[in-house]
Amino acid sequence: MRASVVWMVLTMAAAVLQHCSSGGGDHSSHPDMISELPGQPPVGFRQFAGYITVDESKERALFYYFAEAEGDPLSKPLVLWLNGGPGCSSVGVGAFSENGPFRPSGQMLVRNEYSWNREANMLYLESPAGVGFSYSADDSYYGRVDDRLTARDNLVFLRRWFSKFPRYKDRDLFIAGESYLMVQFNKRRNVFNLKGIALGNPVLEFATDFNSRAEFLWSHGLISDSTYRVFSSACNYSRYVSEYYRGSLSPVCSRVMTQVTRETSRFVDKYDVTLDVCISSVLSQSKILAPQQVAERIDVCVEDETVNYLNRKDVQSALHARLDGVSRWSVCSSVLEYDFLNLEIPTINVVGSLVRAGIPVLVYSGDQDSVIPLTGSRTLVQRLAEELGMKTTVGGWTQVYGNALSFATIRGASHEAPFSQPERSLVLFQAFLRGNPLPETF
User: Fold this and answer.
1) Which of 77, 93, 190, 298 has the greatest CB tally within 10 Å of its CB?
2) Burial of residue 185, with CB atoms counted within 10 A of its CB: 0-12 exposed, 13-18 middle, 19 or more buried
């Protein structure tokens, strides 16, 4: 998997959550409060950033960035946002490239008029340790990271973050993120006031999600008929990934993937096959053979801008951040050795358990993403709805099943939908938070 694939990890093991006071204070002298980020325009909301220690003996700490909602934050919900990779930054990708209040532009920050903190208090977590500014003083930790350990650390983080910000403890909580999801949920959910989960282009079931790539590439004219046939039969993508991460790549899979790579070429970005090129980008080589026009101007080099911005010493000082064990901040970790075979663990059944418990789940897909194409996600959500005996109540660009399971396609969006289609993504987010019907087209 390429490093900019993102994943979402959270555990809701409420049994270990200690009760936090719901009292408050105004946080006016909070040690993690950001006075101002270098180059930022004036804003009317507060920002916080810093560390939560999740293991004192190993000196392991997770970094967060928190942007309170614009206008009356006390009346608005809390959203925990998680990117992944495994190993990529929620601060660098989510906050500064997708749905946060600012985006870097040269030496300055510019306002994102479609920031999700217009609707909610946004908490971005860099997880696991080794990602972004999060760190472990014990280097041996980096070589044995998996979903279980990441989920445990995330729970400790959330519990201790609520102790640091007690006014948010009883707030409506939503969890949102992209690509790779692993959720453990304890039915004693009343300890967390969990109101919903939104999953963007998620890996719900390894084979179905990954094997939808061949049809996507073929239907978009990126691979030939003959390559589509062998990519669907001789060696499909789930088989290739499974062999690759087990260190047992077969000759046939090697040949098939060489052919697929040659035809799609390094000048097509798998995460959005329609955007223009950022020649210098580390993570985004080029973006299509024949670019389509889009309504908004998209800065396809925002990842490079973010890397430059977050590596400035004055920015790190303002964020109360430091580098530990690495010389530079990077979008995706260079030290983490994640157990990629965790990708094979299905999560669609966990989504089903959430829906059965009455927790609304929204699955949304950018329709220009070939990494986790919309066809696989739509198939899995439809299958789950049938298993749960849920009837379709709305059809079209959005499919709504009963009152707790929804699937939506965001037109013209990439794997990172709020980056490439910020206005449409915000419309979807607003409807989800408010429990309103999803728009029929967007």
Assistant:
1) 93
2) buried
Distance separating alpha carbons of residues 68 and 48, to the nearest angstrom? 8
Query: For residue range 103-150, what is the model confidence (pLDDT) as tens digits?
Result: 999 899 999 999 999 999 999 999 999 999 999 999 889 988 888 888
Burial (CB < 10 A; 0-12, 13-18, 19+), residue 352, is: middle
Other residues' Cβ atoms within 10 Å of the Cβ of residue 57: 7
- 415 part of the active site: yes
Active site (annotated) includes residue 369: yes
Residue 421 φ/ψ region, left for φ over 0, alpha for ψ in the -120 to 50 degree band, beta for the rest: beta
Please tell me the distance from the alpha carbon of residue 230 to that of residue 286, in angstroms, as a whole number. Answer: 26
Report residues of the chain scoring pLDDT below 50. Answer: 1-25, 182, 185-189, 281-296
Among candidate residues 369, 377, 406, 425, the one labeled active-site is: 369
Q: Which residue has the tokens 């006390």?
A: 74
Domain boundary assignment for the chain: 7-208+304-434, 210-302
pLDDT at 243: 95
The two tokens of residue 40 are: 């930022």
Residue with tokens 């999700």: 116
Instruction: Exactly one of 4, 179, 284, 330 is catalytic; name it.
Output: 179
Convert the pLDDT of each residue in 378-397 to its tens digit: 999 999 999 999 988 776 67
- Residue 281 designated active-site: no
Q: Which residue in the list 209, 284, 415, 425 is annotated as catalytic?
A: 415
Helix, strand, or coil here: 284? coil
pLDDT for the residue numbered 441: 64
